[in-house]
Amino acid sequence: MRYSDGGGLTAVERDARERVRFEAAGLFEQGVAPPVVAGRLRVSRKSAYAWHAVWRDGGAEALRSKGHSGPPSRMKPAWRDWLAQALEEGPAAHGWVEDQRWTLARVATLIARRFHVRFSIKQVSRILHQMGFSVQVPQHRAAERDDEAVATWVREVWPVVEGTVRDQDAWLCFEDEAGQSLRPPKARTWSRRGTTPLVRVSGKGSGRVSLAGLVCTRPGHRTHLIYRMLVHHGRRSEKKGFKEADFAALLDAAHQQLGRPIVLVWDNATQHKDTSMRELLQARSAWLTVFRLPPYAPDLNPAEGVWAHLKKSLANLAACTTDQLAALARTRLKKMQYRPSLLDGFISETGLIINPQPSP
After folding, report:
1. pLDDT above 80 (res 106)
2. How far is residue 261's CA from residue 290's CA, in Å, rounded to a whole number?
C-alpha cells in the first residue's frame, strides 16, 4: 500500500502505521470481523474494511508499505540539513534585519536563493513540519547580553556560591523585584470562531503593585518564598518603589525567619549597589554574603519564574481597583508559598543546582 507524505509522515511514523496493518492482518486470519478490528486497534472502520479487502486479495504481504506516493521530494536531505542550520542562525544573518520572524515566505525565499528552486508556501510548511519545526512563541533576550560572560559566571562564580553555602550551612536566597499595574497581561481564552473576545480592563493610568521577593533554598530543607509588597494608588505622598532600607528590612526578616546565614544572589540594579546599599550590606556581613549575577541574565534567577507565574495567573484580569489587585497578588503568592515543589521547579529551570556534598 502507498501513503502520501501530505500529512507529514516520517519514515518512523510510516513504519508504525505498517505494524498496525500487520496486526490487523493477524486478526483477519483469526476470523475477526473488520468492525471488531477497528475497535481493538482504534482505527476507523473505513480503514479496517480497506485493509481487509487488500488482505483478502493478496494476504498480509499486500499490506506492506511501498513508500510514499507521488514523485520524490525536490527538497534533498542535504538541503534540509543546510536549511535547519540556516534557520537556527536567525533571519538577521540572512538579510532580514527589521524583525526576527521566520515566515513561510521568507523560508521559501531563502531556499530559492540557495538552491534556485521555488517551493510554494504550503510545500514549505510541509517541509518544515517534516524537519521537526513548528510555529512557536519566542523568548525575548536582551541584545546587550554577553553570553560568554554569563557562561563564565556559571563556570567560575557559581561554584564559589555553592561552596559558600555548604561551608556556612547557609540559605541561598535569590532576590528580584517586579510590578503589576491595573492593565493585566493578555492570555488566550475560548471564543466563537471569527469573533475576537473582548475583556474590559481598567483604563486608569495610576495604581501599581510593587513586589520584592526572595526564593530561599537549602539542601535538605523546604524551599521558601519571602516577599514584601508596596501598593501605590497614585497619590503623591505614597512611596512608588522599594528603597535601600526596604531591601535591608526584607533581608532582616528573612534572616530572622530562616535562622541561618544567608548567601544572597541578585542582579546589578542601581539600588542594589549604590553607596547606601553597600553600607547596609556591610553592617550585616556577619551573616550575609552577597554575589551579583552577570548583566542581563534573568534566566539565572528563579525569582523571575515566580513573577512570570504570578502574572500568568493575573492574565485577562477584569477591571478592578489597586487594592483588589494587591489582594489577588497576595492570594496567588500565598499559594506559591505552600507549593515548595513549584519553587524548586523555578530553581531547576536556571540550571543552578546546589549539591549537598562537593564534587569529587
Report:
1. yes
2. 11
Q: Which tens digit of pLDDT belongs to each residue from 18-47?
A: 889 899 999 999 999 999 999 999 999 999
Rounded to an integer, what distance in angstroms lies between the CA atom of residue 264 and that of residue 292? 8
Decide if 305 contacts 344 (C-beta within 8 A).
no
- CA dist., res. 172 & res. 293, Å (int): 13
Q: pTM, whole model, 2 decimals?
A: 0.71
| pLDDT tens digits, one per residue of 148-162 | 999 999 999 999 999
Q: Are 207 and 181 in contact (CB under 8 A)?
A: yes
The position carrying cell 531591601 is: 247
The pLDDT of residue 238 is above 90: no
- CA 75 to the chain's CA centroid: 32
Rg (CA), the chain: 29
Closest CA to 170 of 281, 255, 253, 262: 262
Give the C-alpha separation, 320 to 311, whole Å: 15
Q: Which of 290, 310, 306 is nearest to 215 (CA)?
A: 306
pLDDT confidence bin for 7, thresholds 50/70/90: very low
Cell numbers found for residue 126: 510541509
Among the residue ranges 19-23, 138-142, 180-184, the one predicted with the least confidence is 138-142
| b/e sequence 112-136, b meaning 16+ C-beta within 10 Å | eeebeeebeeebbbbbbebbeeeee
